[in-house]
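Notebook entry, structure prediction.
Reason for the run: the old model in the group folder had no record of what sequence produced it. Starting over properly, with the input documented here first.
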Amino acid sequence: MKKIILSLSLLLTVAVTTAFAAAEPGINEQVKESFKKEFAGAELIRWADAGDYVKATFILRGLRTEAYFAQDGQLEGTVRSLFYSQLPLAVMTSLDKRYATADIIDVTEITNGNGTAYRVTVDANGKKFRVRIDTAGNITDIERLKK
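New structure, fully documented this time:
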């Protein structure tokens, strides 16, 4: 019985590994070279189709990061999960003034052709908000989220 279970486990492992490897979209050499140049040292890289873009999800310096590439290899933008303490001082100060008693749920850095901005999800008195803020600490958008 143990041999059957071990054999089935091995078979399942091989099948899952093969399925994930086959599911990876065809990534062209321009995108791969651009990725290697921009994100040396990246670990646990996973590729996915994202409409007109190719998305790479990976770990860089301990942070989960997504990078979006055009088919010609041009880096279009990145999205990183951050800790609150990693925000620029101007952003933290602005959030502390507006949401002094709020709990910070999620912090994301978005960088693209328009520059860098931050998306912070806060829980203020039982109400959740997604706050978009620029690097200078200016709040550019507030969206109320349903619980």
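Summary: Confidence is low (pLDDT under 50) at residues 1-23.
The old model has been moved to the deprecated folder.
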